[in-house]
Amino acid sequence: MSSAHSAVPTAGSVPSPSPVSSSSAAAAPTIAELLEFVRRTARDEALIASLPLDPEGRTWIRLDGPGGSEAWLIGWPPGTGTGWHDHADSIGAFTTAAGALKEHSLAVRLPTDGWKTLELADGVDRSRELATGQGRAFGQNHVHEVLNESEDVHAVSVHAYYPPLPRIRRFSRTGAVLRLEQTESPEDWQ
Prior knowledge:
Family: Belongs to the cysteine dioxygenase family.
Oligomer: single chain
CATH class: Mainly Beta
Helix content: 10-25%
CATH superfamily: Jelly Rolls
Distance between the termini: 16 Å
Keywords: Dioxygenase, Iron, Metal-binding, Oxidoreductase
Number of strands: 13
Pfam family, one: CDO_I
Largest sheet: 6 strands, antiparallel
Protein name: Cysteine dioxygenase
InterPro entries: CDO_1, RmlC-like_jellyroll, RmlC_Cupin_sf
């Protein structure tokens, strides 16, 4: 079921989701369960080594996450990133399996809909380095960008989201101004 895909190295690149197997018997996973899953999966050396790495674009393999969650193993060439985005109504977690990633995030709850431009207050910016084995979990509407700032080392990470991504909102940022640029749905990724 898993296959590798290459992405064009742009800030707007996202994995193309595969159909999600649903099980009515499976309970929705908690944030803690998603974090445990990505941490455990990041320690699977054979799986991490199976990800083909591209020198220019991100690569990924779709994984089976817990409780019907959407999960990905993602390779990050040096100098690549996601751009500012959120995962809408999904909770999530990710862990760095190799290399290091940096996450910039906003410590503020944004309105879910009905806006195009917001001026952010002082003090809402957060940054964290996520070395191999380090990860984090987040709630709904968490706005962040993830980057591999290395000049010469690939990074690999494991991500899980529940419910499977209903949409992703993409933002641009100039100083304190955050602008909603695009809302993507799963149909846009296929």
